[in-house]
Amino acid sequence: MDIGKERALELKEVSVNYGLVPVLKQVTLHVDGGEIVTLLGANGAGKTTTLKAIYGLIPVKEGNILFFGDSIKGFPPYRLVDLGICLVTEEKTIFAPMTVMDNLILGAYSRQNREERKRNFEIVFKLFPILKDRLKQRAGTLSGGEQQMLALGRVLMSNPRFLLLDEPSLGLAPLIVGEMMKAISGLREKGLSLFLVEQNARAALKIANRGYVMAGGRIVTEGSAMELLSDERIRSAYLGGRRAVCF
Ligand code: ATP
Predict the structure, then answer these.
(1) Which helix (H) or strand (E) holds 21?
(2) How confident is the model over 122-166, as pLDDT tens digits?
(3) Whose CA is nearest to atom 31 of ligand 1?
């Protein structure tokens, strides 16, 4: 897919409240087809809330959310899954007592035929070969990194077009973070578009095309991954620079 040809996801001046408290304030951003776009920001900036708003888990007070030009505002998750939009959350959403194999089968879209399911298994095993070795193991006994791989693998079994990822590197050892990011980057090559929320700004910007920085529920900076990586304020705030800079 040619990057930038189609606008896959678009948030237009989206505002969200928790009760009476405004949390997202006129958030405008987009992800083009075949892009990885990352949303960065400190704890409490509103990143997870942005994902929840997209995924219909909290009501949008103002603004609109479009998927390939059509409004998806307020769609419940099952309708979004039907459209090919999947969310992988911080809480690794696996079924701990079940085997790796059963977790993956559960992820497969119910209307898939045998061929499609086989193809999706191959995609998952190519990205995460370790899962193939662990098929009969109970998911709850996998390591943290393996569980994260299974959570992503399970979602990939449903043949998504668009992935929303919340902190895929959370709690992973540095070596595994690299592996996970490589796998995520590989998904773009398959034509998926990805919106990636990350605390690990360096890892995210390494694989992203573009990024947004959020503070206090607003988008305060945006740019290409290269621009953000070389922005002194980003370097100071998120990439371990020396001076602390507030957005
Ligand atoms: P982190 O990186 O720590 O996960 P975040 O950028 O994802 O942070 P959010 O989880 O979106 O931040 O939270 C944004 C703000 O909304 C925070 O101030 C948080 O305390 C508040 N908040 C989150 N969930 C709720 C809720 N259910 N009710 C009230 N306030 C909430």
Answers:
(1) strand 21-32
(2) 999 988 999 999 999 999 999 888 898 899 999 999 889 999 999
(3) 18
Angle at 112 between CA 103 and CA 144, to 5 degrees: 20
Tell me which residue has its CA closest to atom 25 in ligand 1. Answer: 18
Report residue 39's pLDDT band, with 50, 70 and 90 as the boundaries.
Answer: very high
Residue holding tokens 């578009």? Answer: 193
- Predicted TM-score (pTM) above 0.85: yes
Q: What are phi and psi of 122, to 5 degrees?
A: -65, -40
Q: Kindly report the protein residue whose alpha carbon is nearest to atom 19 of ligand 1.
A: 44
Q: How many angstroms separate the alpha carbon of residue 79 from the centre of ligand 1?
A: 25
- Look up residue 108 and give its two tokens: 């497969």
Q: Where are the alpha helices (DSSP H) in 91-162?
A: 100-107, 114-127, 129-133, 144-156
What DSSP string describes 38-70? EEEE-TTSSHHHHHHHHTTSS---EEEEEETTE
